[in-house]
Amino acid sequence: MSKAVVEVNSLVKQYGQLRAVDGISFEVYEGEVFAFLGPNGAGKTTTVEILECIRPLTSGTARIFGYDVTRGEDVKEIKRRIGALPQEFSALDKLTVKENMDLIGDMYQKHLDVIEIIKLLDLEDKTNEKFENLSGGLKQRVGVAAALVSDPQLVFLDEPTTGLDPKARREVWAVIENLKKLGKTVFLTTHYMEEAQVLADRVAIINKGKIAAIGSPQELVSQHGGLKVLVIRKGDKKLANLLQRKYDQTTMNSSGDIHVKIDDVDEFWRVMATLTDMKVDKEIEIQTPTIEDVFLKITGGRITEEGELKQ
Amino acid sequence: MKVITIFKAVTKNWIRSRSGLFFSILFPVLLLLVFGAIFSGIGGTSQYSLYVQNLDRDASGQPTELSTAFIQALNGTGTFAMSTVPQDANATDYVRDQLGPLGGNMRILIISEGFQEDLVNGTLKVRIGIIYDMYQQFEPYMSDEQKTAFQQGLAQMQQYNATDAKVSLTIMLDPADQSAMMVKSIITSVANAFNYQMIGAENVIQFNETSVTTKQFSTVELYVPSITAAFIMTNGVIGLAATATEFKRRGIIKRLSITPLTKIDWILGNVLSQALLNLMLTAIMIAIGWVLFNVRIIPDAITIAMILLGSIMFSGIGMALSGFIKDVEAASAVGNAIAFPMMFLSGTYFPIEMMPEYLRTVSNALPLTYFSQGLKSAMLYKDAGGIYFNMAIVAVLAVAFIIVGALVTRWKEK
């Protein structure tokens, strides 16, 4: 196993009566994309800002590359080694993309060639464009570029695609996949299930300040996602009743689709044989559980597009 | 190095912002142009309008000699733009018509009928009184022949029937007219001079007017440092407060705080940017004064030091405000609420001596009072006392405010 670059142990952040982060522990390993998945107010950004050394913790420990986020001298070392895209990234409006990149780059003793980073993020034709004239997606790309300019070993991306249209979101995903190829460790926070599923090597589901589950998307799905479902499109009540008699986990939704939950491959073939015997000539599909199903099962709710938890 | 990077970035950001450029440089320039045009006399000197109705006529209907002479004396002051109200018109109605729908200041002087006659009689009466007083004073020392001759002379003079009639002039002024007191005072002065002339008296007390400074300064010269000081203040208290609040609200400060940049570097970079902006403002104000109003101010090292200290002081206030306030509109509103009263109470536009006692106390507590006075001393008076006293106070306040600004600027979330 790779070495841990982030080590968090019993981390607590308390605001008066509110416990925003409630004793969480986890590790992030070198070279992986680690996703913190949860609704707004779950404690994602609070945790990330503690790790970025811009928010004090209440109790517990947090170490980045072995450096303590609460010790003055260690903080300097951490800040030299991390890059970050804060939530709702913004930059100086009247400065160009390159000037904003130079501004961030010059904060470090050593930094990469700004033009190279601009090329890496496919922003070459916007190099001399003022930040205020960029679209939301391009602004986020500039934010990611700024996070990379110091050649960090660990990159925090806090809700990098929130508020972006689907096309811009895919563009940012491509950038994150590229970071992984470059060997960077990426700490991603998101409330988009698909984003976590597509990008992350490991996902921590956080809700109400606590980590509800942690593991690779496959592990989470297999542990918490439930059964696969065989869907018969546009069936009828008679067929549903017949199947129900043989397979008790059969339901029919309002669209007329019949769902049969299957435990294993043998059961799948048994259901298929039944359908063949009954000469059913309908569209058939197999649905595999997703992170969304995992989240639903663990928290009892879904996350809306805006990031709110809906029970 | 990081300080210079921040300085360059925020300065570029400001220079490219039209609204920033307008409020920091163009607005004070416009104000100087307006004040300069009013007080420099370029394009003609300013005069008070005065309508005169002369009702004192001789038998042929022509204005009498003395009333005409009095009007000429008023005109000779060069203070009034005089217009004549016809003899048979209702003066107030006539003037109101003349002023038209936009209105204006109604200032009317009516010379009553009998002005000349009353003036002659009154003067004669005064002169007889003087001779009689003189006679009474010297009577004990006179011979009988002298007394008899004097009494005969007095009796002959009294045959002229000198009454004690007082000459009356009617001045009609609008109570809302800010110049009313000034106009009344000038007319009274001219009338007094006329009185003295008529009775043959001479001014015994004469004024020998000299300036307390080695050089006489024009009003525009005084406004160059005053307006400059006021806008150095607004650049910090309103401009920087709003900009820093905007940076905070948009997460720019948070983004920078994740890098190795320190809070002190950030503040120093902004103070440097303010200092450059204020030096530019001063240079432009001096250049405009020089070219348009013939104001010759040559800034020296002391002036530059004063501007730097002022920049630190007002940047400290701006930073402190941005530390407390969350949104830009509120920062701008609070900045204005502090800056504008300070501008008017610190002697920038009006002399502090004009203010009531309690406002003078307030004025003495305002940083701009010392900065404005110090800048005037450094740019114009060159008086060591004025420079170093004010500079010392500004330096102490600069240190105090920049410390407060640094303390309340949040570099870490809660």
Give a brief description.
The complex is a heterodimer of chains A (311) and B (414). By secondary structure, chain A is of the alpha/beta class.
Description:
The complex is a heterodimer of chains A (311) and B (414). Chain A folds into 2 domains: 4-223, P-loop containing nucleotide triphosphate hydrolases (Rossmann fold); 227-288, Alpha-Beta Plaits, CATH 3.30.70. In chain A, a hairpin with a 2-residue loop joins strand 4 and strand 5 (67-68). Chain A is α/β, with parallel strands linked by helices and 311 residues long. Chain A is elongated. The relative contact order of chain A is 0.14. In chain A, strands 6-7-8-3-9-10 form a 6-stranded mixed beta sheet, sandwiched between helices. In chain A, strands 2-1-4-5 form a 4-stranded antiparallel beta sheet. In chain A, 35% of the residues lie in helices and 27% in strands. With 414 residues, chain B is mainly α. Chain B folds into 2 domains: 2-40 and 214-408, no CATH class; 48-199, no CATH class. Chain B is 67% helix and 5% strand. Chain B contains 15 helices and 4 strands. Chain B is elongated. In chain B, 34% of the residues are buried. The mean pLDDT of chain B is 88. The A-B interface holds A 15, 49, 52-56, 76, 79-80, 82, 84, 86-95, 99, 102-104, 106-109, 130, 146, 150 and B 1-2, 5-6, 9-10, 12-14, 16-17, 250-252, 254-261, 411-414.
